[in-house]
Amino acid sequence: MEFVPAHESHARLWHSWRQDRSAIEFNPFEVQDHVxxxxxxxxxxxxxxxRAYKEYRWFVVVKEKTxxxxxxxxxxxxxxxxxxxxxxxxxASGQGLATEAAAAICERGFASDLQRIRATVACGHLASIxxxxxxxxxxxxxxxxxxxxxxxxxxxxVYERMR
Length: 163
What we know:
The chain is of the alpha+beta class. It contains 5 helices and 7 strands. A hairpin with a 4-residue loop joins strand 3 (65-76) and strand 4 (81-88).
């Protein structure tokens, strides 16, 4: 597995993954087309040593195929904390790739002086909950009716891991 810096050329692929049924079912995506996603990719970094950004994103490559994206977002360097997010394409899910990628990016974050990494997961998203728990994140709180998803407002579980 390797992590390549996010680039606007990834926007169409990322957009296609966001159309997957499971992605829509469990993630409160702001509706963005590939042009808007390309703009978002231009505004983030993959270099954690440059503290000027609030989002750091990489694309996950396995056997020369781009299979997902992973990010540390809402980074607050003064508080030394960030939020972890990941998305593995449906065609590559179920292979442990999210767990492996998230573990590696958490280690990069901690090596860059982050002290706390949080993750939010929609209640019922059992695969994502398993990923977070395998990484030794601890349950922190439940945000009641926090995400608006196609099935309505759902609770969100907040997990965190300390350095």
